[in-house]
Amino acid sequence: MTNVLVVAELVGGVARSTTLPAISAAREITGHTGGAFDILVVGAGSTAAAEGLGGYGARKLILAEIDGAYICERYAPVVAEIGQAGYGVLLACASSYGKDLMPRVAAKVGAGVASDITGIAADGGSLIYRRPMYAGNLFGSVKINTAIQVVTVRQSAFDAAAPSGGASATETVSATADAAASKIEFISLETIASERPDLTEADIVVSGGRAFKSAENFENILEPLVDIMGAAMGASRAACDAGYVSNDLQVGQTGKVVAPKLYVAIGISGAIQHLAGMKGSKVIVAINKDAEAPIAQVADYFLVADLFDAVPELTAAVAQLKAAG
Amino acid sequence: MKILVPLKRVADPDNANKVKVSADGAEVTTEGLEWMMNPFDEWALEAALRLTENAGTKERIGEVVVVSIGPKEATTVLRQGMAMGADRGILIGGADTNLDSGLVAAALQKIVAEEEPHLVLMGKQTADGDSGAASQMLAERLQWPMATFVATVKTDTAGESLLVERELDTGLMTMKIQTPAVITASDRIIQPQAIKNGVTADDFKYPDSDRGRYASLPGIMKAKRKPLRETSIGDLGVEATASVTYTKFELPPARTGETVFVESVDELVQKLHQEAKVL
């Protein structure tokens, strides 16, 4: 029997949606091992955030209020302290928060880590985690040998947990920062507000590559298509590096990993590193001048065309389809 | 400023789709793929070199030490690092297949104790393991402050603190971090003006590239004579127990179906609507 501690991710007094796939993974683990899962609601606005997390079947919610922005050295100690109180698995989503925090927690509790897992299985009494390697060109099944296991889960690989009803008990703990926290001064956090669906949650993602040549072209040519399709917008690393869009739109091995129902890659050649971030999509469309671009290896539909002609045409065609009802 | 940069050799990441698995699923084979410096480590090294040089005069104003864990062949990646400009190299002898993040952190902790750098600058993940855990584990072992996914670094000649911007899922965080510290590099740390060290002119622009600097021929020749120390996991007094065990490796299921080349936008829309039913 193994108890699981889910570490919630809080932003502005609300649990970020990344917490939900983590809850799904926790449910899967306890499904194999018996045991219960608790949710550590750590961060600023924990009381408000806990209100949204009480109906997911957690045995209890543990609230740890830490004001100000997330700084690992302020969060890791309480996660480690609670984590060592009877849990076999400490788990969070592999968002930039989870990826930053959990390995440090693992080192505090002497745990092995399985990062960015996409599947969970049981083999005899052991949990086996499946995880992508070599930019998703290989999958490894890994067993964690330590008494406590630390796991981060790939958001696109686990369903966002649905509420299961009930009301979890709550308790409050206090958090003390590491000495190292005094060596860090938070200056600012610039978040990019968007009305568009979140890249990691949208059913449709439309991404642009360097072939768009400018930020203006992204805005004037790609964005209308993104919006008529009600999609989230993504981009290749090259387009982000060139400054055509903000970095948080990067899809790829080192950016966001998405698996929507429809992924449209426009002017994107399909480097290994980009494929790593989207080849799990259900349907993949490529629009590219080059029929031999590597993106063809994963594309279900390929339109060989100049994006400057094809994208406005596609926008109009989709608009017409939607109008027809 | 003294910076320690860990380097890992990885099988050619641009051909990662050619990686194979043994029949019994027990081993990964990278036969036929060239060993290269982990690209993420290469960016960290390039950032470290920029932090420790006057780009205008090409004068070195600090020290960069590169370290790798691996078999004898891994010295190639250390020599490449030294050819780019690192001053010294350290090889920690040991197998580098399935390197355990905890083991890496423990080994690097020993090197840090010996070298006493101001900064450990690391790639954010390896192109093969993709775990992205060793750096945070090292920071914890050292009880040092850390900053992951760093896109820009601004410091001064004293090097007592760094102003960094971190790339998050949700935006950009700016923080000031006191050295000694552990930093991991984001994709954008080698943008032309991402690194400012208070010595290189503020308006200086490095070339726009997604690779670190090429090693010049004189650089390659000099690297052959730069000190390279060899030690081992055992010699460092690190316990070699693995905290994780890989039980199996598999290739991902191939995407089914052929690519349908459509002739027009209209055909595409029609197929997405009627055939694929995603529009």
Number of helices of chain A: 8
Cα distance spanning the termini of chain B: 56 Å
CATH topology of the largest domain in chain A: Rossmann fold
Q: Mind telling me which CATH architecture of chain B this is?
A: 3-Layer(aba) Sandwich
The CATH class of the largest domain in chain A: Alpha Beta
What distance lies between the first and last C-alpha atoms of chain A, to the nearest angstrom? 53 Å
How many structural domains of chain A?
2
* CATH top-level class of chain B: Alpha Beta
Q: Could you give the count of β-strands of chain B? A: 18
**Main sheet record of chain B:** 10 strands, mixed
Tell me, briefly, the overall form of chain A.
globular
Total DSSP helices of chain B:
6
Number of domains of chain B: 1
Q: Which fold name is given in CATH as the topology of chain B? A: Rossmann fold
What is the tally of beta strands of chain A?
18
Return the CATH architecture of the largest domain in chain A.
3-Layer(aba) Sandwich
The percent range for strand residues of chain A is: 25-35%
Q: How would you portray this structure in words?
A:
- The complex is a heterodimer of chains A (325) and B (279).
- Chain A has 325 residues and is of the alpha/beta class.
- Chain A is built from eight helices and 18 strands.
- In chain A, β16, α7 (272-275) and β17 form a beta-alpha-beta unit.
- Chain A is globular and about 60 Å long.
- The relative contact order of chain B is 0.18.
- In chain B, 24% of the residues lie in helices and 30% in strands.
- In chain B, strands 1, 8, 9, 10, 11, 12, 13, 14, 15 and 16 form a ten-stranded mixed β-sheet that branches.
- The model of chain B has no long low-confidence stretch (mean pLDDT 95).
- Chain B has six helices and 18 strands.
- With 279 residues, chain B is of the alpha/beta class.
- Chain B has helices spanning 39-51, 75-84, 101-115, 134-142, 217-225, 265-275; strands at 2-6, 9-11, 20-21, 28-29, 35-37, 53-54, 59-60, 63-70, 88-93, 119-123, 146-154, 161-168, 171-178, 181-185, 195-196, 228-232, 244-250, 260-262.
- Chain B has a single domain, classed as HUPs (Rossmann fold, 3-Layer(aba) Sandwich), CATH 3.40.50.620.
- Chains A and B meet through α3, α4, β7, β9 and β10 of A and α3, α4, β11, β12 and β13 of B.
